[in-house]
Amino acid sequence: MGGWKLEVFRMAVYMTFPVGLFYYFNQPEFFEGWMMAQRQQLFPPEDPRVDEIKKAAEELERLREQRWEEQFKDKLS
């Protein structure tokens, strides 16, 4: 078996290895880069046609409101 020097070395490795990994993987730059890559993969950017669809839906809603107001005015008159 090894002597006390080997035991001290083993204890130092057992203590510094987890602390070193904890330090490395909890750096904000590392985490942010990894998180942005995961987010990009899970939630890809929106399709450019989404804006066109939203505008068309808003226009449709505006036309419905306009038609409803015209029908309401006709009933009151």
Model description:
This protein has 77 residues and is an all-alpha fold. The protein folds into two domains: 1-45; 46-77. It has three helices and no strands. The chain has helices spanning 4-25, 28-42, 49-76. It starts with a helix and ends with a helix.
Question: What attributes characterize this protein structure?
Answer:
77 residues, mainly alpha, 2 domains, rod-shaped
In short:
The chain is mainly α and 77 residues long. It is built from 3 helices and no strands. The chain has 2 domains: 1-45; 46-77.
As for the number of domains, it is 2
Give the CA-CA distance, first to last residue: 105 Å
Strand proportion, as a percent range, falls in: under 5%
Report the average pLDDT across residues: 87
Molecular shape: rod-shaped
User: Low-confidence stretches at least 5 residues in length (pLDDT < 50)?
Assistant: none
Largest beta-sheet characterization: none
Number of helices: 3
- Structural class computed from helices and strand pairing: mainly alpha
Succession of helices and strands: HHH
Question: What does the secondary structure layout of this molecule look like, with pairings?
Answer:
Layout: H1 4-25, H2 28-42, H3 49-76
